[in-house]
Protein 1
Amino acid sequence: AFEILERSRARSLLTMLGERDLLFTADLPPDVARERQSIAADYDRTQARIAQLNPGKDQKEIDALLARLRQLRDARESLAQQIRKASPRFAALQYPQPLDLAGVQATLDPGTVLLSYAVGEERTTLFAVKSNSSTTVGEPSVAAFSIPIGEEALRAQVTTFRRVIEQQSRSGEPRSNPSPLREQGTRLFNLLITPARQIVAAPDRVLIAPDGVLHSLPFAALIGNPEGPASQPQYFTEWKPLHTIVSATV
């Protein structure tokens, strides 16, 4: 499930890059660049033609066009192999290879744990991935936690938290005082971080891959008791250095 999440995020990067002329086309041999453009244009024309047809009347032509799409996909994959050899930089952006779990672990800096979130309609899943240096023999390298909150309810909590931060900033109220900021920050910490607290405790730093509304959540401002209920509450960023990424592959 974690690898599927990584693959979808890598594809999202490809989609964004495809909407902009940000690729290293100068690195490609001219004939390869022309063939790439020709395949892409032919694929778009074929898809557009299929969309215009009526399955009840034009099924034979639709079948022929679907076969043509399969041929174009095969040609595109063959060309991708050529491009990976001719221009590794271009291929890394145009044909990104999503990392599997082992690849993600190898990429993480020593002493880093990755918290990767997937927000669903009714539940949120948290994947906690340890770096190779943080995993002992016989210990699982990844753990998954099901958090009982969906996108709509989570959005409401994040919005409330951001509003409280803005209001307190304008009022000048000392952050050390008990306040709605602490209440809401603690609620979100307990919801999103506490399930993986034992895994987060040992590493030196935390790498966060948010999802959906969590991209707008200031994780550093969450407030918790990292050492247990009897410990002094502190901001998440006081406990661990935090970093945010789109995905491990990106």
Note: The mean pLDDT is 85.
Protein 2
Amino acid sequence: ALVKFFDKHKMAAKKALIAKDALNNKPDNLLILSVVFDIQMSLGNYQYAEKIIRKLINKDNNNVTYQLLLAQLLMKQPDNEEELFRIWAKAFNLDQKMPIALIAKYDYLLQQKRYKAALFTAKRVQGHFPLISLGLLMEAKVYRVTGKIKLALETYQLAFLLQADAGLAVKIADLMTVQKGKVDNALLFLQKQINNPLFDNSPVLLRLAELNSIKKDYQQAIKYYQ
């Protein structure tokens, strides 16, 4: 509660004092160590934060959260990639019901523009979690970023079949409009989604209004805006 209060009032020095006092009182308490780690991360004291998180891992080597926090920290430092990948692999092996470690690795690879490896990771996610659209969405993003619009569109459409939502419907329509002469296809697709019971149709109506405005069909655009 004190940390939150000092955060709100931008009192960084007070947070540092709390961390010091807490460790002096209970240097081996897991909860105290976790709070101190958060404080040091917020203060940008990454080397000290790394010592704390490694101490936590030594006390509980099978805690997935600690492994992921260490990976998050190592991403801020150069020349740690080998350990980074090892940590993500261990975190996923510890809890294969959650894709968090694979998602973190994918985001890192995408940031590094290593698209082939990011695509492989996306396919791993889809292989482990075939009943949800997450892996397909990750795969489609790689295709989109690398300019493979047709593949991106096809993959988003597969994802939509698994888990339909308004945001994804808009993405599909937008990719259709990028393709030459496909604006009408995008309009038709979105019109079919207006009464889709699986999601709120507001984003769909908005995109329909915008597309009709582009086509200069202003009466139809007004209708959708209303």
Note: The two ends are 45 Å apart (CA to CA).
Protein 3
Amino acid sequence: TSNRPDWLSVLGVAREVAAITKTKLKVANIKESKIIIKDSLPVKVSINDKQGCPFYNARLIRDVKVGPSPSWLSRRLELLGCRSVNNIVDITNYCLFELGHPLHVFDLDKLNQAEVIVRRAKAGEKITTIDNQQKLLTPEILVIADIDKPVAIAGVMGGKDTEVTTCTRNILLESAIFNPILVRRGRQKLGLQSESAYRFERGVDLESAKNTSLLAQKLI
């Protein structure tokens, strides 16, 4: 239900069971593997709508090898009713189901001038989503854009132009907080549904944004 977004993950269910049975919850300690000074990142991140996006975490990972997922990963996703795509995308979905926070990953080299801008869409802008649907955007929809155009519908679905493929070598891992009302309105207006939107609409935890990103980084 809308008041229990914490149940939309393995960790959330485990926490509830621990409370009911009065047992201790075991939480993995995921440590930051490398600290990078923000000004040294070759990617510029701008949040033009802070009410729509109060928090945005970006991790740059270079020299990845994109291919089929190991059998344990694809099998676990299959049991959850999630189609295996590739190892990088599958890791973000795995982390979503484990910790409850949606992630998105961009092919860094497909972002024009390596810039990420969180803003409202401009009237008449279009985007082709990863499921090959072209959508006409309106100013009430929150998007992730590069210097030229929208590359994702914030909290709902990524765009085809920056999706991760077997040719991808460098990625930008996004973990953010998006306004639940904006996500719901945008999804409904565009006729889209996704595991990410289902969670963002109900509200996600700020602390989980960092932890889920760290877990994905570790697995990648």
Note: Strands lie at 44-47, 55-61, 104-107, 115-120, 126-128, 134-136, 142-145, 150-153, 157-158, 171-177.
Protein 4
Amino acid sequence: FLAAPIVHVDEEHENEIIMIAALQIPIDEINSIMNVSRKIESKTGTADTYLVGPDRLWRSQSATPKKYNVKSTLLNPKAKMNTEAVTQGLAGKSDTRIIENQGETVLSSWAPFRFKDLQWAIISEVSKAEIQKPITDLMTVIGVIAAVAMVIIIVVSLLVASGVTRQVDAIMKAMSNVEQGDYSQQAEVTSKDELG
């Protein structure tokens, strides 16, 4: 609910409240607006975008119902958000930074949300682990590729080395026989390269 007094000013310039106008915004409407930003945020469900009022209580439903639900958050005094993001957002400041939120390290972006006398903070967060997942996955792929390349290089090196070694052994054996006077010796050709 949003409420505002309707004031009548009399001839003596005194204010008299004659009624209070109240507007009810269904939580489903607020959540549908918040869900637009959530659709592109998170593939693993660790991202959340939510509104917090000046009393530090939730004003929108969490995107992670397994972690938070309407009853455990929305206007629940036990679910006060005492984070740096909320403090800064309610103070009218915007920023993006890695912070701690209820025991979890998150990348948090926040901004003030003002409408007439209404002052809320809008917070968007995603876990640091989710942010680092692509980097971790890339490092794993690079490590596997490097290991496979190393194995291939070692195998090729051993094959080339053994081919060269066999040919050199054959040449050395023939040279040894020639040295002992057997001039009819020919080295066996075991490789098809320049040495062979």
Note: The CA atoms of residues 28 and 60 lie 9 Å apart.
